[in-house]
Amino acid sequence: MANSNGWGDGAANNTIGWGQGANNAIGWGDIQADSWAGLTDITGVPGFDADAQAFFTAANITDATQKTAVNQLVLDLKSYSLWTKLDCIYPMVGGTSTTHSYNLKNTATFQITFNGGVTHSSNGVQFGGVNGYGNTNFNPSTNGSQNSHHQSFYSRTNVSAVEIETGGTDAGSGSYVAARLSGTSYFRLNTLTDISIANANSQGFYIGNRTASNVVNGWKNGTKVVSGTVASTGNPNASLFIGAWNNVPNPVIRYYSSKQCAFASIGTGLTDTEAANLRTAVQTFNTTLGRNV
Q1: How many CB atoms lie within 10 A of CB 41?
Q2: In terms of domains, do 57 and 40 share one?
Q3: What element of type H or E holds 159?
């Protein structure tokens, strides 16, 4: 029997289309992607950037907070036009040697090989200062640019010792960042000459940066703390290490770090604005994870 709203008239013969599945007036029964209730994911589960998702899959990241932090990091790096300038991005999330080894930029390249005394936790990678380090497998002689290069390291530890946080060198050229080597921050980028500045606390985010054949600068927490006119002498033929200095000429690994790393990156040189924005993105990331300093 017909009625004003068509109740009981079956799928095909009622006013608002109850029972018709996808083919009804308000879209009840349509697939999630095409539902008319806002044309969004109606379950409320957010989508992730494709590069972030690739990292989650490779590193088996399942923690919701870590996913949120990494996804926002990717979005921020892209919005600041930094994504294309970074070859290696190590967010150090997941709490294990495996999860900490993956390169967020491309999980199939430059995966870290950890060696020696290294402790992994939700706060990042704690280097032991004796024999622990991570080999990024990034060799500037084949992967880098002589006059455009940066390395970064986020230190959660305040210690003054004869330590280098990230770097590598051969007989003709070298690159490294030392947050607080005997009370001084040192930056060397594709040369054998350092620039340096006194530093009373090694906690923070450090960037060693070369932007031209004779322009280098060092950054701490988004501020350029030192700059210099230093000629580049070539790309060192040495894999860059995190947690130590890969001193190929001797050959011997030197200046093991005892600092805890909560982020590291390698890439091309950064403008002043880009260096400041990189710190902003990384600080937001670590703040979300509750491990910022």
Answers
A1: 12
A2: no
A3: none
Are the C-beta atoms of residues 202 and 158 closer than 8 Å to each other?
A: yes
Whether the CB-CB separation of 18 and 8 falls below 8 Å is answered with no
Residue-wise pLDDT for 158-201, tens only, equals: 999 999 999 999 999 999 999 999 999 999 999 999 999 999 99
How many residues are listed for the chain in this entry? 293
Residues 170 and 106 in one domain: yes
Burial class (CB in 10 A: 0-12, 13-18, 19+), 137: middle
The DSSP 8-state label assigned to residue 239 in this structure reads P
For residue 250, what pLDDT is reported? 83
Contact 209, 189 (CB under 8 A): yes
Number of domains making up the chain: 2
Give the pairing of strands 260-267 and 86-90.
antiparallel
Q: Classify residue 85 by its DSSP letter.
A: G
Q: Which domain holds residue 100?
A: 50-288
Claim to verify: residue 133 and residue 22 sit in the same structural domain? no
- Return the amino acid letter for 38: G
Average pLDDT over residues 107-125: 98
Paired tokens of 111: 């995966």
Q: Is the dihedral of CA 98, 102, 108, 112 positive or negative?
A: negative
Q: How many CB atoms lie within 10 A of CB 4?
A: 6
If you search the block for the tokens 């994911």, which residue do you land on? 41
CB-CB neighbours of 212 under 10 Å: 12
CA distance 139 to 97: 21
What is the mean pLDDT of the segment spanning 280-286? 98
- Give 149's strand partners: 210
Q: What mean pLDDT is reported for the chain? A: 89
